[in-house]
Specification:
With 198 residues, this protein is an alpha/beta fold. It is built from 6 helices and 5 strands, in the order E-H-E-H-E-H-E-H-E-H-H. The termini are far apart.
C-alpha cells in the first residue's frame, strides 16, 4: 500500500479578479425592485412577505417577481432582469444547492451593475459567503434569515421576509464601499450542528 493518499476536491479553482460592489442609490423611491425567487419551497412566501413590507413601510411601488423554477441552477434571464431592474434581491437560499445558486445569481446581477442582496438562512450563510468569495465577490451582502425557513404556519414564514425588509433596504442604499468593507470583514456563525459541543 502506498504511504500517501491523493484526495481530489471537486470545488474548482477560485476565480481571479475582484468583482466590485455595484454602486447603490440613496433611496429606493421610484426605483424598479426585482425579487428573484429561486424556486425553493417557501421562497415565494418569504418574498411575498418582503414585497408587502417594502410597499407598506418603504414606499416601494414598482416590484417585479422573477421566478427561475429550479433552485439548483443559475437564472437564465440575468441580462433581461438587469435591463429591467434598478436593484434586486435574490433568494431564498436554505439548503446546500439553493444557497450557492442564489448567491451566484446575486453576483451575476452585481456584475451587470444592479445592486443586489442575497437572502440566505442562518445554516447556509457561511456556504453562501464562501461561494461569493470563490467567484470573486468578497463583499456581496447576504441577509441572514432564521433557519429553518419552513413552518406549518405560512404567516410565520412570510414574517421572515417582512423582518428582513429593513436590512435589505439598508444594504441596497448604503454606499458601495461601506457595504464592501462590512461584508469583506463579516463572519457568519457556523451552523449549530457544525460547532463542537463543550
Amino acid at each position: 500500500m502506498p504511504d500517501t493518499l491523493t484526495v481530489l476536491m471537486p470545488t474548482g479553482a477560485q476565480q481571479t479578479g475582484a468583482i466590485a460592489t455595484a454602486p447603490r442609490p440613496e433611496s429606493l423611491k421610484g426605483l424598479r425592485v426585482a425579487l428573484l425567487d429561486n424556486g425553493k419551497e417557501f421562497s415565494d412566501v418569504v418574498l411575498d412577505g418582503l414585497a408587502q413590507t417594502l410597499k407598506r413601510d418603504f414606499a416601494v411601488t414598482d416590484i417585479k417577481f422573477w421566478r427561475k423554477g429550479f433552485p439548483a441552477k443559475g437564472a437564465p434571464f440575468i441580462a433581461e432582469m438587469a435591463a429591467e431592474s434598478d436593484v434586486a434581491i435574490s433568494g431564498v437560499g436554505h439548503c446546500g444547492s439553493s444557497s450557492p445558486w442564489s448567491v451566484i445569481d446575486a453576483v451575476n446581477l452585481e456584475k451587470a451593475g444592479v445592486p443586489t442582496v442575497a437572502l440566505i438562512s442562518r445554516s447556509f450563510c457561511p456556504l453562501g459567503q464562501i461561494v461569493g468569495r470563490g467567484v470573486g465577490h468578497t463583499g456581496l451582502p447576504i441577509v441572514m434569515l432564521p433557519h429553518p425557513i419552513g413552518e406549518s404556519d405560512e404567516t410565520r414564514i412570510a414574517q421572515k421576509g417582512s423582518d428582513a425588509a429593513a436590512e435589505c433596504v439598508r444594504l441596497l442604499t448604503t454606499r458601495a464601499d461601506s457595504i464592501n468593507a462590512e461584508y469583506a470583514a463579516k463572519t457568519f456563525p457556523l451552523p449549530e450542528h457544525a460547532v463542537p459541543r463543550t
